[in-house]
């Protein structure tokens, strides 16, 4: 009998050209597999332990913050309590840094699956999110001018009731809840996580909208829009305070240029000198609304209701859910203002007298809903309040174009804008783009 027949019955692990492997190679493979079987006993325990947390509900891994993730800017709170899951399943398990709990193929290769995450593609890629943010910014510019034009035309027609315009328009945000309801069980949304932040956001955004409607009847739409774009200045300062952004000399220069443009625009001579008091009041209300608007954007990022590293679909639903809860808070709380204003005689609480004006008011409410929905979605997609506030500068030329087109369609004279106001608007755009 040959030497091969008398050998140990150990399995031969391969052959080259029909011949057995060399004894040295056979020994190396046997040693490798023996070590792997010994290691596999411990790794199976790690896999079972980690899989029990794969639904993301216990460790809060679904919306955990990663400073290197797309859209993140590194300034969100790092307290673990702020990172609890807002929506349920993350569709996977985060492997530990030590490599335990990774796939057997990763352990065979001696590499941890957490060393380098694969680049995000499709709807979660950075390029896709920036493209969607640009689309939202363009929609913001159009809807902003549309609601300004509708609100101003309603007041010019004799219907001066900013509180009704604000209250019912803001309450219609609650329609967002209906959009999220079909996905409620799928993503396991936790309402308690949203209650207090959305209450604060509802108070700020309602007062912001009310002051803005009050200012419309005392300002020209194009000038109103130009000054409102200085919200990027407010966002910048509040971002340094709340979001811990670092100061930069170029940003300070941009702030100075924007403020100069505001003064030139606000104090430019007008055709009707008798409206000076009204114009001054309008700009005071407008500046107050602008500050609240900037605070609203920064607080939305600071509360981390929709983290920038969330998947696109979950982030979209969380944005709409946030908008819906602000509408619910408005409906439940701010109705108290109507009897107070009626009793004091400050406003006559009533709907428009004609069907045409009522239809205009209804359209205005829907435009307000669209604007705020686009705003929250844009904040999520862009990942930066400052980027969003700068991008909405498109509203400035859009507003001017709308005024000239409306004047031509109506057969009236085109609105006259003083050269000082033109210079101010140019400085606002220049400063915001720095």
From TrEMBL:
<feature type="transmembrane region" description="Helical">
    <location>
        <begin position="361"/>
        <end position="380"/>
    </location>
</feature>
<feature type="transmembrane region" description="Helical">
    <location>
        <begin position="252"/>
        <end position="268"/>
    </location>
</feature>
<keyword id="KW-1133">Transmembrane helix</keyword>
<dbReference type="InterPro" id="IPR000620">
    <property type="entry name" value="EamA_dom"/>
</dbReference>
<feature type="transmembrane region" description="Helical">
    <location>
        <begin position="315"/>
        <end position="341"/>
    </location>
</feature>
<keyword id="KW-0812">Transmembrane</keyword>
<feature type="transmembrane region" description="Helical">
    <location>
        <begin position="415"/>
        <end position="433"/>
    </location>
</feature>
<feature type="transmembrane region" description="Helical">
    <location>
        <begin position="387"/>
        <end position="409"/>
    </location>
</feature>
<dbReference type="InterPro" id="IPR026505">
    <property type="entry name" value="Solute_c_fam_35_mem_F3/F4"/>
</dbReference>
<protein>
    <recommendedName>
        <fullName>EamA domain-containing protein</fullName>
    </recommendedName>
</protein>
<feature type="domain" description="EamA">
    <location>
        <begin position="133"/>
        <end position="266"/>
    </location>
</feature>
<feature type="compositionally biased region" description="Polar residues">
    <location>
        <begin position="1"/>
        <end position="13"/>
    </location>
</feature>
<feature type="region of interest" description="Disordered">
    <location>
        <begin position="38"/>
        <end position="123"/>
    </location>
</feature>
<dbReference type="InterPro" id="IPR037185">
    <property type="entry name" value="EmrE-like"/>
</dbReference>
<feature type="transmembrane region" description="Helical">
    <location>
        <begin position="195"/>
        <end position="214"/>
    </location>
</feature>
<feature type="transmembrane region" description="Helical">
    <location>
        <begin position="130"/>
        <end position="150"/>
    </location>
</feature>
<feature type="transmembrane region" description="Helical">
    <location>
        <begin position="226"/>
        <end position="243"/>
    </location>
</feature>
<dbReference type="GO" id="GO:0016020">
    <property type="term" value="C:membrane"/>
</dbReference>
<feature type="transmembrane region" description="Helical">
    <location>
        <begin position="280"/>
        <end position="303"/>
    </location>
</feature>
<feature type="compositionally biased region" description="Polar residues">
    <location>
        <begin position="104"/>
        <end position="116"/>
    </location>
</feature>
<feature type="transmembrane region" description="Helical">
    <location>
        <begin position="162"/>
        <end position="183"/>
    </location>
</feature>
<feature type="region of interest" description="Disordered">
    <location>
        <begin position="1"/>
        <end position="22"/>
    </location>
</feature>
<dbReference type="Pfam" id="PF00892">
    <property type="entry name" value="EamA"/>
</dbReference>
<keyword id="KW-0472">Membrane</keyword>
């Amino acid at each position: 009998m040959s030497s091969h027949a008398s050998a140990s019955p150990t399995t031969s692990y391969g052959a080259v050209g029909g011949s057995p492997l060399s004894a040295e190679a056979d020994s190396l493979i046997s040693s490798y597999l023996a070590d792997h079987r010994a290691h596999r006993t411990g790794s199976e325990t790690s896999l079972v332990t980690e899989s029990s947390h794969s639904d993301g509900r216990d460790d809060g891994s679904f919306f955990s913050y990663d400073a290197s993730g797309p859209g993140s800017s590194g300034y969100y709170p790092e307290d673990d309590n702020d990172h609890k899951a807002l929506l349920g399943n993350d569709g996977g398990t985060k492997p530990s840094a030590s490599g335990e709990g990774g796939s057997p193929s990763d352990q065979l290769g001696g590499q941890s699956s957490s060393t380098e995450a694969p680049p995000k593609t499709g709807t979660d890629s950075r390029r896709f999110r920036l493209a969607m943010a640009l689309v939202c910014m363009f929609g913001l510019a159009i809807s902003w001018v549309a609601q300004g034009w509708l609100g101003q035309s309603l007041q010019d027609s004799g219907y001066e009731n900013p509180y009704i315009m604000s209250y019912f328009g803001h309450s219609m945000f609650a329609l967002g809840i209906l959009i999220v309801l079909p996905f409620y069980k799928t993503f396991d949304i936790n309402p308690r996580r949203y209650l207090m932040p959305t209450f604060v956001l509802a108070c700020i955004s309602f007062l912001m909208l009310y002051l803005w409607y009050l200012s419309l009847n005392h300002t020209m739409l194009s000038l109103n829009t130009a000054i409102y774009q200085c919200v990027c200045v407010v966002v910048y300062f509040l971002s340094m305070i709340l979001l811990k952004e670092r100061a930069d000399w170029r940003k300070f220069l941009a702030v100075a240029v924007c403020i100069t443009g505001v003064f030139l625009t606000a104090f430019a001579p007008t055709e009707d000198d008798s409206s000076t008091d009204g114009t001054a009041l309008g700009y005071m209300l407008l500046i107050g609304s602008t500050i609240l608007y900037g605070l609203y954007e920064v607080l939305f990022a600071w509360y981390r209701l929709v983290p920038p590293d969330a998947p696109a679909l979950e982030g979209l639903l969380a944005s709409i859910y946030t908008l819906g809860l602000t509408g619910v808070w408005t409906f439940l709380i701010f109705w108290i203002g109507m009897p107070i204003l009626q009793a004091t005689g400050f406003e006559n609480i009533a709907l428009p007298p004609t069907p045409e004006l009522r239809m205009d008011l209804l359209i205005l409410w829907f435009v307000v809903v669209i604007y705020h929905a686009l705003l929250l979605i844009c904040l999520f997609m862009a990942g930066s309040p400052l980027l969003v506030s700068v991008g909405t500068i498109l509203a400035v030329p859009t507003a001017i174009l709308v005024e000239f087109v409306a004047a031509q369609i109506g057969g009236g004279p085109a609105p006259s804008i003083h050269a000082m106001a033109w210079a101010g608007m140019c400085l606002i755009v220049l400063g915001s783009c720095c």
